[in-house]
């Protein structure tokens, strides 16, 4: 079987091995980074708790020091454990802005597949080819 000119110029086995090697190294780097970042985040959480305790005992909402300053604030998060009444309020009151503007990619893909005649004004798509690399029978990682 003759190889085409482009196949002769490209060593697929080497490309795949290098790709897997880079992917594996990135996974190790990410794991190390995440581990260190989690450790530092826990330290910051301990310091934040100490500063919050200081605010309570000193009856203040912040303080200044030579190294900087801090302020105590509030952050409120909202969520629902029952979407049916939430959708009812959103639809009956006409307040779609209560939801974040993000389309569920998988749900939209399913909806469009089930309703191929449907066109939604303003809906944009971006389809790209992807590459998925998997281990082969030869697990040799030498390049």
Descriptive account of the structure:
By secondary structure, the chain is mainly alpha-helical. Helix content is 51%, strand content 6%. The chain is flat. The chain has one domain. It is built from four helices and two strands, in the order H-H-E-E-H-H. 0% of the residues are buried.
- Residues in helix, %: 40-55%
Strand order across the largest sheet? 1-2
Q: Give the overall shape, derived from the CA principal axes.
A: flat
Number of distinct beta strands: 2
Count of DSSP H/I helices? 4
Largest sheet: 2 strands, antiparallel
Which class best fits the helix and strand makeup? mainly alpha
Topology overview:
Blueprint: H1 5-9, H2 12-58, E1 62-65, E2 68-71, H3 83-93, H4 105-114
Name some characteristics of this structure.
single chain; 143 residues; mainly alpha; 2 strands; flat
Offer a quick outline of the entry.
The chain is mainly alpha-helical. It has helices at 5-9, 12-58, 83-93, 105-114; strands at residues 62-65, 68-71.
